[in-house]
Design goal:
Largest sheet of chain B: 6 strands, mixed
Radius of gyration of chain A: 22 Å
Number of domains of chain A: 1
Mean pLDDT of chain A: 93
CATH superfamily of the largest domain in chain B: P-loop containing nucleotide triphosphate hydrolases
CATH class of the largest domain in chain B: Alpha Beta
Distance between the termini of chain A: 16 Å
CATH topology of the largest domain in chain B: Rossmann fold
Oligomer: heterodimer
Order of helices and strands of chain B: EEEEHEEHHHEHEHEEH
Number of helices of chain B: 7
Strand content of chain A: under 5%
Number of strands of chain B: 10
Strand content of chain B: 25-35%
Mean pLDDT of chain B: 90
CATH architecture of chain A: Orthogonal Bundle
Distance between the termini of chain B: 34 Å
CATH superfamily of chain A: MetI-like
Strand order of the largest sheet of chain B: 6-7-8-4-9-10
Low-confidence stretches of chain A: none
Radius of gyration of chain B: 18 Å
Helix content of chain A: over 70%
Bound molecules: adenosine-5'-diphosphate, magnesium ion
Largest interface: A-B, 24 and 27 residues
């Protein structure tokens, strides 16, 4: 109940904006073709629900697959960077430099290499979401309290035991911050990938709706993209709650 | 490396330690030699930065000395300055940790944990996380963990400095009881002159950086000690001398 109360102000603000928006459009000061009213967007969503769901499924699969692959890569890379100074010196600058590559410009290349299917989109998702997760995990691992590592050493723990029993748990906080950013980037990545060229997906649907001035459909599609992002973000929050019970304890 | 022989004695022979800071050597421990007989309680006292923590880390095998030789028993328990309980483990899981590291988890240990928690009135807190306990209780859990594995040597780095005065007094009494029960050697760093007088058989005073031993003192008081009765003329003089030494070193 208290959880819910926390969100009341934001909920009220949203409601106020929606009412203002609806009233503005209803007053006739602006054409529904330029700015459709919230009610029109909802009915557009309802009318096209079958076809939107069809596209959304494709996007959802791209996002999920890409995000999972990205997190696996990030964990492996971050661990290697953390454990080995040579790897860090070789890899870290490249990682940072890779962030200056405009991914949108890369997407057409991926299209040429991998075609219009789902694979190039998954690759774009991975590229988008990998960096924040990997960097956050490196940060978290490096910030392990030294006294805890010292204690483990005094008990004769191996490097691997210290990693598993101390470094990873100590890094979880930052790791989840990275995961949340990565989750949002993953959704953006999928839609951007689809913009460049795809048979199916919310990006495709959004683009074709925009080309035919179906603005209500554009807004409806955006809503669905947001819903996917919220779902992914929500899952990350849930996993965090489940894997870090001692955080819950701290607030008690 | 710290040689861990099956001897119960702790011996530092001409131990020096330098860290590399900004590409220059920073000497923090300077030619320290001392011997601690089995079963003794020794306190190290000295100003901030005099290398006390470094010395303990060398003893615990965490840091390597630049010169000299250390001899220490095999089975040691080390409590770092900033605490050693894993925030993500419950009290019980923390108590299990040393056995987990050595792959020696068994039923006997669980029973031993239960008995110790009960004995020290912490049985209700077995499932609690460290953050849910007071500072005093946390240190108690850390010390119970050392007791559980019957070490030959306990290394303590300012174990009570974060506690309020009353809790600190209680913990000091409790630590001495624990030590007498375990019959092990204790080497304890402290800031607090009164604390060292209450706890120690022997006090070593370190100079400011680089740390050298500038005074060795035997505390001439029978056990069990009463913190209020440590005011014989001789002990008061000893306290005064320690105070003066430390004040001089601070300048
Ligand atoms: N890993 C390290 N690298 C460089 N300098 C260090 C390191 N650890 C400690 N020092 C320095 O060594 C000196 C002694 O530190 P420490 O042993 O912690 O002293 P104490 O515990 O007596 O306060 C301090 O000046 C500290 O800054
Ligand atoms: Mg210290």
């Amino acid at each position: 109940m208290r959880e819910f109360r926390k969100y009341l102000p934001a909920l009220f603000l949203t409601l106020a904006i929606l009412i203002g928006w609806q009233a503005y459009v209803a007053s006739g000061l602006i054409s529904q073709r330029i700015l459709p009213s919230p009610s029109l967007i909802l009915s557009a969503l309802f009318d096209a629900k079958a076809i939107i769901a069809d596209h959304a499924l494709v996007t959802f699969v791209e996002v999920l697959a890409g995000f999972i692959i990205s997190v696996c890569f990030a964990v492996i890379t971050a661990t290697a960077i953390f454990l080995s100074t040579p790897v860090k010196k070789a890899l870290y600058p490249l990682l940072v430099a890779s962030q200056t590559i405009p991914i949108i410009a890369l997407a057409p290349l991926l299209l040429i290499w991998f075609g219009f299917g789902i694979v190039p989109k998954i690759i774009v998702v991975v590229i988008y979401s990998f960096f924040p997760v990997a960097v956050a995990l490196v940060d978290g691992l490096s910030a392990t309290p030294k006294n805890l590592v010292d204690y483990m050493k005094s008990q004769g723990a191996t490097r691997w035991q210290i990693l598993r029993l101390v470094n990873y748990p100590a890094a979880l906080d930052k790791f989840f911050i990275g995961l949340k950013i990565g989750a949002v980037y993953a959704v953006t990545g999928a839609v951007v990938g689809e913009f460049v060229g795809a048979y199916k997906g919310l990006g495709v649907y959004l683009q074709s709706s925009a080309y035919s001035y179906a603005t209500a459909q554009v807004f409806a599609t955006i809503l669905v993209i947001m819903a996917i992002a919220f779902m992914l973000l929500g899952s990350v929050f849930l996993v965090q709650k489940l894997t870090m019970p001692w955080k819950r304890a701290n607030n008690a | 490396m710290t040689t861990r022989l099956a001897t119960d004695r702790v011996v530092f022979e001409n131990i020096s330690k330098s860290y590399r800071v900004n590409n220059a050597g920073l000497k923090v421990v300077d030619d320290i030699s001392l011997t601690v007989d089995p079963g003794k309680f020794v306190c190290l006292i000295g100003p901030n930065g005099s290398g006390k923590t470094t010395l303990l880390k060398i003893l615990a095998g965490i840091e390597k000395q630049s010169a000299g030789k250390v001899t220490a028993p095999d089975n040691i328990a080390y409590l770092p300055q900033q605490g050693s309980l894993m925030p993500w483990l419950t009290v019980r899981e923390n108590l299990r940790l040393p056995a987990k590291i050595k792959n020696q988890l068994d039923n006997k240990l669980e029973k031993n944990i239960d008995r110790n928690l009960k004995q020290f009135g912490l049985d209700k807190f077995a499932g609690f996380y460290p953050a849910e306990l007071s500072g005093g209780m946390q240190q108690k859990v850390a010390l119970i963990r050392t007791a559980l594995y019957t070490p030959d040597l306990i290394i303590l780095d300012e174990p009570f400095s974060a506690l309020d005065a009353i809790t600190r007094l209680q913990m000091q009494v409790w630590l001495v009881e624990l030590w007498r029960k375990l019959k092990c050697t204790v080497i304890c760093v402290t800031h607090d002159i009164n604390e060292s007088m209450f706890l120690a058989d022997e006090i070593y005073v370190l100079s400011s950086r680089p740390g050298k031993i500038i005074r060795q003192m035997t505390v001439d008081a029978r056990r069990p000690r009463d913190i209020d009765k440590l005011s014989t003329k001789r002990l008061l003089n000893a306290q005064k001398e320690l105070r003066e030494l430390l004040v001089n070193e601070r300048i």
